[in-house]
């Protein structure tokens, strides 16, 4: 059975230019999501929810791969990259107030994965270790929309330079941001030095009338 790699299936979402902003059509996709608030550099909850999310998606992958009975529509796959949404109550992110940042941590999941399967994975995880956030997940279907994207290479705390490029493009092309700030992480910060980290920065947009 062929293993599906969503980075290839949805190449438009998992690849981007470092030099120019591009307008893209984002298809409707399903995600497992963990929500929270606080400075990602100091929040224990932030780190624990990332761990909970990865525990679930990898346990699911291998639990289903070796299961005798598989869900309808099953196929093996490469776990997609980690993504996140960021915003504040007024939607404008203030880089000087990270403790007020709100975030959604998420990884794309296949259509055959449902709440019941995730609960089975959580039971398996809890046999080995505990994480109080395991059951705080939700499944969200994000509707198809248009977006703009650019690749940021460098430390996460310097991504604002790429955000400014997006904002400049949006202003010059008579567009308007309607969604939360979106980041897709293509590098593992445990294995890649900060100056080489690859992050796709995205905004959801519509034409300004």
Topology, number of strands: 11
Largest sheet: 9 strands, antiparallel
Q: Would you identify the CATH architecture of the largest domain? A: Alpha-Beta Barrel
The secondary-structure class comes to alpha+beta
Q: What helical percentage do the residues reach?
A: 25-40%
Please indicate the count of domains: 2
Order of helices and strands: EHHEEHEEEHEEHEEE
Low-confidence stretches: none
Q: In the CATH hierarchy, what is the superfamily of the largest domain?
A: Regulatory factor, effector binding domain
What would you say about this model in short?
This protein is of the alpha+beta class and 209 residues long.
Descriptive report:
- This protein has 2 domains: 83 residues, Multidrug-efflux Transporter 1 Regulator Bmrr, Chain A (Alpha-Beta Barrel), CATH 3.20.80.10; 114 residues, Alpha-Beta Barrel (Multidrug-efflux Transporter 1 Regulator Bmrr, Chain A), CATH 3.20.80.10.
- The chain contains 5 helices and 11 strands.
- The strands form 2 sheets. Strands 2, 3, 5, 6, 7, 8, 9, 10 and 11 form a 9-stranded antiparallel sheet that branches.
- Helices cover 26% and strands 31% of the residues.
- The model has no long low-confidence stretch (mean pLDDT 95).
- Helix 3 packs across helix 4.
- The protein is α+β, with helices and mostly antiparallel strands.
- The N and C termini lie far apart (49 Å).
- The longest helix has 22 residues.
């Amino acid at each position: 059975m062929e293993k599906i790699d969503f980075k290839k299936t949805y190449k438009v979402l998992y690849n981007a230019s470092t030099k120019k902003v591009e307008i893209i059509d984002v298809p409707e996709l399903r995600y497992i999501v963990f929500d929270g608030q606080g400075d990602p550099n100091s929040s224990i909850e932030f780190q624990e929810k990332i761990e909970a999310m990865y525990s679930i998606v990898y346990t699911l992958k291998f639990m289903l791969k070796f299961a005798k009975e598989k869900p309808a529509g099953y196929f093996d796959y490469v776990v997609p990259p980690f993504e996140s949404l960021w915003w504040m109550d007024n939607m404008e992110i203030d880089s000087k107030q990270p403790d007020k940042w709100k975030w959604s941590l998420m990884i794309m999941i296949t259509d055959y994965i449902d709440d019941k399967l995730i609960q089975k994975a959580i039971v398996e995880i809890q046999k080995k270790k505990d994480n109080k956030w395991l059951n705080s997940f939700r499944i969200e279907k994000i509707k198809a929309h248009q977006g703009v994207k650019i690749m940021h290479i460098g430390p996460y705390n310097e991504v604002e330079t790429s955000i400014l490029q997006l904002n400049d493009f949006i202003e010059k092309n008579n567009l308007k941001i309607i969604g939360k700030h979106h980041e897709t992480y293509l590098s593992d910060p445990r294995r890649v030095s900060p100056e080489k980290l690859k992050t796709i920065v995205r905004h959801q947009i519509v034409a300004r009338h």
